[in-house]
Design brief:
Blueprint (H helix, E strand, L loop, with lengths): L3 E5 L5 H13 L2 E5 L14 E7 L9 H6 L8 E8 L6 H8 L4 E6 L19 H20 L12 H18 L2 E3 L8 H5 L5 E4 L2 E4 L8 H5 L5 E3 L16 H5 L2 E4 L1
Bound molecules: flavin mononucleotide.
The site of flavin mononucleotide has 23 residues, from helix 1 and strand 4.
């Protein structure tokens, strides 16, 4: 049994990169992925349990909320959470805190992977992917020091009511957008998008991906396609992809990554 467990959701690798950096700093850590139902929900023997995830539509991504409800943590365990976001924290930290009371929580702005909403140069604060990476690495070092020192946050994360409404409203916008997923002529039919899709929403038919309606918007397929051949209608056609450079597709497919 590892001393620490970090539950991590990551769409295009940025949160997984941060989880790996924090795990290296803490030592003896299992990173349990929450892209689909976590492979390990019994965290009762861990000394510290953390959550690292991205803000999505103002709230928690995918089915993370229900996954966290399934995790068992022993009373007295030190708990922490780190949220990455592009422009605002939203209500995700509070939602976790209501399920697993958090001893320590913090957030850090990364460049937006929400390329269907806006390119990273338009996010607030505007920044380059390189600067965003520096900011995330600096934050990760601080989180390691704080967690090892057993630091406690003085207040609970904000309820952020407007974001709660926004995350509930995601459904309609999302449904309209996912109908626009398509592969262009650069697609080689390699099938990486289908392997990466946490919901099994993509099938390769006649050498090209075919999309169903069960998408949760992680954008792994769009961001990690080696040919940048997947688009959401015209929205992403001229937009740069920026999957995390320190994470590869096979790591996103892991269920548990152990770091000594
Ligand atoms: C579908 C989608 C929705 C997002 N919504 C928000 C949002 O509402 N607010 C925000 O600040 N960032 C938002 N983001 C940006 C991510 O939180 C941020 O880029 C994060 O670093 C992504 O981490 P990941 O690559 O590990 O998934 C969104 C990203 C995606 C893909």
């Amino acid at each position: 049994m590892s001393e620490n467990i970090i539950y991590c959701y990551s769409g295009s690798g940025h949160c997984l990169d941060m989880a790996k950096t924090i795990a290296k700093g803490l030592g003896d850590t299992d990173i349990v992925m929450m892209r689909s139902f976590p492979a390990k929900t019994d965290a009762t023997e861990a000394k510290r349990v953390g959550f690292i995830f991205s803000c999505m539509a103002g709230g928690l991504p995918g089915d993370v909320e229900s996954y966290i409800k399934a995790i068992r943590i022993a009373p007295g365990t030190y708990t922490f959470a780190v949220e990455q976001y592009a422009g605002y924290l939203g209500c995700g930290l509070r939602k976790i805190d209501e399920i697993v009371p958090l001893n320590y929580w913090t957030g850090v702005s990364n460049h937006s992977t929400a390329i269907w909403l806006m390119p990273h140069t338009l996010t607030f604060p505007p920044t380059s992917p390189e600067n965003a990476q520096k900011r995330v690495d600096k934050k990760a070092a601080k989180v390691v020091a704080d967690v090892l020192a057993g630091k406690r946050s003085e207040r609970r994360p904000s309820k952020a009511k407007p974001f709660e409404l926004m995350s509930k409203g995601l459904g309609k916008t999302h449904a309209a957008r996912i109908r626009k997923f398509e592969a262009d002529e650069n697609c080689t039919g390699c099938g990486l998008c289908a392997s990466l899709c946490p919901r099994g929403n993509i099938r390769i038919e006649n050498g090209k991906p075919s999309f169903s309606a069960n998408c949760m918007g992680c954008l792994s397929c769009v961001q990690l396609c080696p040919e940048a051949a997947l688009n959401i209608g015209n929205i992403t056609k001229k937009r740069e992809r920026f999957p995390d450079r320190n994470v590869n597709a096979s790591e996103l497919l892991e269920k548990i990554i152990h770091i000594d």
